[in-house]
Amino acid sequence: MVVLQHLRGDRALRLLIALFAGACGAPAEDSREEATLEARAAITNGAATSDANVAALVSGSTLVCTATLVSPRVLLTAAHCVPDAPPDAVFGADPARGTRVRVLAVKRHPTFDAKTLADDVAMLLLESAPGATPATLASTIDAGLAIRLVGFGKTSASDTSPPLERVGTSTIASLGAKDFSFGPSPSQTCGGDSGGPAFATIGGVEVLVGVTSSGDTACASMARDVRVDAYRAFIDPWLAQTAAGAAKAGDRCFYGANCASGECAPALDDPALSFCAPPCDAGCPAPLACIADGSGRKLCRHPAPSPGALGATCADATECASGRCLAPASGGSGVCTSTCFRDVPGFCASGYECAAASGTSDLACFAPKPSEARGCSVRGGLGANDGPEGFAIAIALLFLSRRRATPTSR
After folding, report:
1. Which of 111, 191, 221, 246 has the highest CB neighbour count under 10 A?
2. Same domain, residue pair 332 and 391
3. 284 DSSP assignment
4. How open is the CA angle 162-165-167, to the nearest 5 degrees?
C-alpha cells in the first residue's frame, strides 16, 4: 500500500509525480524485477500480536518499516528501508508506546539495487540491547512451507489506522535462488511491513526464513521476500564482528563493549570511524602506533589514513566508510574516496584534489602524486563562514539527492 505520510524526501516526491502521471497500476504477478513493484509496508487478514523480537522502524513519529532482532543488538531488515539517515527502532506492539532504541550503524548489502530491489537486505546495530530473544536464522527452506508473517504495516490498501504489530499466515508459492513469493492465503504483507519477518517451523524450531521486500500495489495478489538462508554469508560475519568482545586492538568497533581490550576510540582522521585503541603502556602491535589525540592522551591507533577513511587502500567499496573504492585514472590502486565536482568547491578535504576515476565517468577525491602540478586547490570542509561557496555546496548536494533512485515504499 502506498501512503504518502510513510514516505520521506525524494521518495515522496517521486511517488507524487507517479500518481499524477497515472503510473500506479498494479504490476503483473511475474514482474518482480520491474520498478513498478512497491516496497512493502502491513499484514492483510492478520491479527494483533506481540512478538518481542520484532521492531518498528520509525523516523520521528512516522512508521518507516519493520525489522527483526537477530543478535542481542542487531536487527535484520530490508535495504530500501534505510536509504538515508537510519531510523530508530521501537520494541512493543504499539510503536507509540514502545521502547525506543537508537541505531548506531547500518550495514546494507553491497550490491543492493534500489530500482529492482535486488539484494534488498540490511542490518542495523542498536545502541543498546533490548533484551528480547533473537530470532534463529534459517539454513535452508523449501517451497510449500507454511510461513508466519509479522509487521507493523497496513491491513489493506485503504487502511488509515495507526500502526500496530500484526501477524498473519501464508504459504511459500514460488522459490527463487535469493527470494520467494507468496499470495494472500489467507494473509500477505502490505504497506509498512517492509523489512519484517517471515517465520517458519522447521524441525520443530521456529526460524526466520524471509525479509519482506515487495509486492503488488493493492496488497491483493502477491508479495516477495528475500531468502534469509541465501544471505547468511552476508549476515553472519557482521553479527560476529559486532558482538561484545569480538574486536581486537586496531579492529573496527561500534561501542565500548565491542572491544576485547582498550577503548572504542574515534579515528583522528575520520570521526565517523572508530577502532579498538589500547593504551601505549605495553607498546603497540603492528600496524598501530602510539599517537596522542588533541587532549594529549596516548593510545595505540592507526596512522592516517585509517582503514576505511579517505585515502586508505581498498579492494572493494564495502571496506570504505564512504562506500566508494576507486582508482585514479592517472594510475594506482584503489583507495577509499568520495564523489566531487571540479566546479563546486568543498567536496574534497585538504590535501586532496577532484580528479577522474578509473573505470567510471565520475570524479572523485584523490591525493595528488608528488610530480603533479597543483593548480587551483580545492578547499576541504564546509564551515560557518563559507558564504556563497557553502550555498553552492548545499545546492549540489540537493541535486545529488534528487538523482538517487529509491524504491516506492509501502
Report:
1. 191
2. yes
3. -
4. 125
